[in-house]
Amino acid sequence: MMKGNAIMDKITFDHLSRAAYVYVRQSTSDQVANNHESQKRQYNLARRARDLGWSEVVIIDDDLGRSGGGSSRPGFERLLGAICEGRVGAVLALEASRFARNGRDWHTLLEFCGHVNCLIIDEDGVYDPHLINDRILLGMKGAMSEFELSTIRQRLFWPYMKKQREVSYFFEFQPDTLRSIVPA
């Protein structure tokens, strides 16, 4: 985690003159209903933004209960719109990976932030998409998030596929056997 002057070297008056946007998201309605600690930690990012010097903080929580890999995320779209309009000096999330779970959305966010000089802040640090080392680190965070989601899907889907193979082996007949069972 970055400390003291290293953080403040990245945060400029230009960033502070625009709003900080806090993006709050939980993937399922079950998480929204039962995981209040995560919500609390995400909403507390507004305090972190104020501690870093922002006077205007906007919280976007329209995507609570929506998966980051899903197609309809009005909060994320609203965030991208505000970034493109130049109203955002920094976007905050618990983990940078919370912004997007697919490469297209992730890289769109990075490109837009880079074009309008918008910082990305998570619990680990402050990232400036203009700086090559930060850009590489953000790219790795996005790739790891996408990999993690693919791994989870694969682990969930594998038992289903295994069962399907077992069932298909059970019902596999030779053509002659099938003719003897089903009259022509």
**CATH topology annotation:** Rossmann fold
| CATH class descriptor | Alpha Beta
Quote the distance from N terminus to C terminus: 74 Å
Largest sheet composition: 5 strands, mixed
Any idea what the shape is? globular
CATH-scheme architecture: 3-Layer(aba) Sandwich
Could you please describe the fold and organization of this structure?
It is a single chain. The protein is an alpha/beta fold. The protein has a single domain (about 5-140), classed as Resolvase, N-terminal catalytic domain (Rossmann fold). The protein is built from 9 helices and 5 strands. It has helices at about 5-10, 15, 30-35, 35-45, 45-50, 75-85, 105-115, 130-170, 175-180; strands spanning about 20-25, 55-60, 90, 120, 125. Strands 2-1-3-4-5 form a 5-stranded mixed beta sheet, sandwiched between helices. Helix 7 packs antiparallel against helix 8 (about 130-170). The longest helix has about 40 residues, at about 130-170. The chain is globular, with a radius of gyration of 23 Å. The chain starts with a helix and ends with a helix. The model has no long low-confidence stretch (mean pLDDT about 80).
List its traits.
Rossmann fold; 5 strands; alpha/beta; 9 helices; single chain; globular; 184 residues
